[in-house]
Amino acid sequence: GREGHYRRGGFLIVVITLSQLYNSETQTLINKAAARRNNDFENMVKAKKEEETTVENGDVAIDDSKLERPNYEELITQMNIIAKPLASKKMTKKIYKIVKKAAKAKQLRRGVKEVLKAIRKKEKGIVIFAGDVSPLDVYSHMPVMCEENKLPYCFVPARIDLGLASQTKRATCVVLVKKDDAYDSSFTELRDRIKEMPLPL
């Protein structure tokens, strides 16, 4: 009678409670899985954006294992066919010093997108290209733009070294060095020497 009713009622409550617990745990697992999927998607979108920025700028992350750098003679064997005029070994060292000073003084435009923007805004300075960039389409149109805008330019052997000189951990295919009081005389000397270099025909 009444005792059996209570037992059945208690059993029903236990069943309902277990069912609710199961549904709650299942929903928690579903929520966690959805959160993981969302996180994976966000990471994928972020990676894609970084990849697009990298392609746009022609820059790539510097692998720490490559920081023990080859010498100048080895590097120039890896350059592309448009890397002219090429700075000499001694001149390349001077260029990296000025690039480093310009980065510190915040007078440096780095990467294809930023340098193109500076050229279109008629900013003045020296343009330095890395000679080992591939594919060439990344920046092959830029030397002509420099000539049209009367911007002296030259090539150095490696984008890793240009990136390191730019105070960044990204290999850099092009920079525009603007004049600054911190390195005025060395900038003028370098600009004049680059102007004297014969341009490719």
UniProtKB/TrEMBL annotation:
GO terms for molecular function: RNA binding. GO terms for biological process: mRNA splicing, via spliceosome; snRNA pseudouridine synthesis. Residues 93-182 form the Ribosomal protein eL8/eL30/eS12/Gadd45 domain. This is H/ACA ribonucleoprotein complex subunit 2. Pfam families: Ribosomal_L7Ae. Its main location: nucleus. Common component of the spliceosome and rRNA processing machinery. Required for ribosome biogenesis. Part of a complex which catalyzes pseudouridylation of rRNA. This involves the isomerization of uridine such that the ribose is subsequently attached to C5, instead of the normal N1. Pseudouridine ('psi') residues may serve to stabilize the conformation of rRNAs. The gene is NHP2. It is found in: Nucleus, Nucleolus. GO terms for cellular component: box H/ACA snoRNP complex. The keyword Metal-binding does not apply. The keyword Thylakoid does not apply. Signal peptide: none annotated. Belongs to the eukaryotic ribosomal protein eL8 family.
